[in-house]
Amino acid sequence: MKKLLAATALAVALAEAYRRFLRAPVLTWGDALLDQADIVSTRAITIDAPVSAVWPWLVQMGPGRGGVYTYDWIENLLGMDVHSVDRIIPGLQQLQAGDAFPLKPGSLELRVEILEPEHVLSLRSDDGRWVWTFELVERDGSTRLISRNRIAMGGSSLGERLGMFVMEPGSLVMERKMLLGIKQRAERLAAEPRPTEEEVRSGALAA
Questions:
Q1: Is 34 contained in some domain?
Q2: Total count of domains within the chain
Q3: Which residues of 43-71 are buried (b: 16+ CB within 10 A; e: fewer)?
Q4: Which of 13, 19, 83, 166 stands 20 to 30 A from 4 (CA)?
Q5: Is 199 exposed, middle or buried (0-12, 13-18, 19+ CB in 10 A)?
Q6: Contact (Cβ atoms closer than 8 angstroms) between residue 98 and residue 112
Q7: What pLDDT is attached to residue 106?
């Protein structure tokens, strides 16, 4: 009985410690990059592929890079140089924290703030008003891709409040297409036959 009571007391203490000190950081990873946000969205999709087949598509994302896997014609109407590709581009796989690329020529940039390979990619606009974080969670060979946006509108004017009614549903349409685009590409990549060790050696000798 004493052991049971001690175990129960320990479990309660650990649960309380988690609630007070760890729960918020666990649930808001990356949110410290933008403390006050007027718009917060969290969207996710399950991909039937390992994280190794998903991560390369995230790394090469961006206007003038691998695209954003959504409705390119809409992005380009806004002046962005978006051409979503269906292949992994080796030259775009060396992303590092601090790297930046413009949303469109002459506009603000997105900068890589957090990069944990095959786990977390967090981008922040150089005006500090938008943070976009991707998290990959592997589950028995499949991957849960989580996309979280935090946006500061910069005020509470009538025009800005009305803008939310356009931005929020619009972002759902675009982001849903993006997540589905990544899912299709990653699952196709995972299904591609991998060369055997013999084929790799033969290719190296032939080269």
A1: yes
A2: 1
A3: eebebebbbebbbbbbbbbbbebbbbbbb
A4: 19
A5: exposed
A6: yes
A7: 73
Tokens at 198, concatenated: 């013999």
CATH code at position 100: 3.30.530.20
| 189-195 long-range Cβ contacts below 8 angstroms, 24+ apart | 189/49, 189/53, 189/56, 189/88, 190/48, 190/49, 190/50, 190/53
More confident position, 103 or 29 = 103
**Contact present, 82 and 91 (Cβ < 8 Å):** no
Q: Tell me whether residue 205 is in a domain.
A: no
Q: Please, which residues have CB within 8 angstroms of residue 15's CB and are 6 or more apart in sequence?
A: none
The pLDDT tens digits of the residues spanning 148-165 come to 988 887 665 666 666 666
pLDDT digits (tens, 9 = 90+) for 79-98: 888 899 999 999 999 999 99
Structure tokens at 110: 């997105």
Q: How far is CA 192 from CA 54, 179, 189, 200, in A?
A: 14, 20, 5, 15
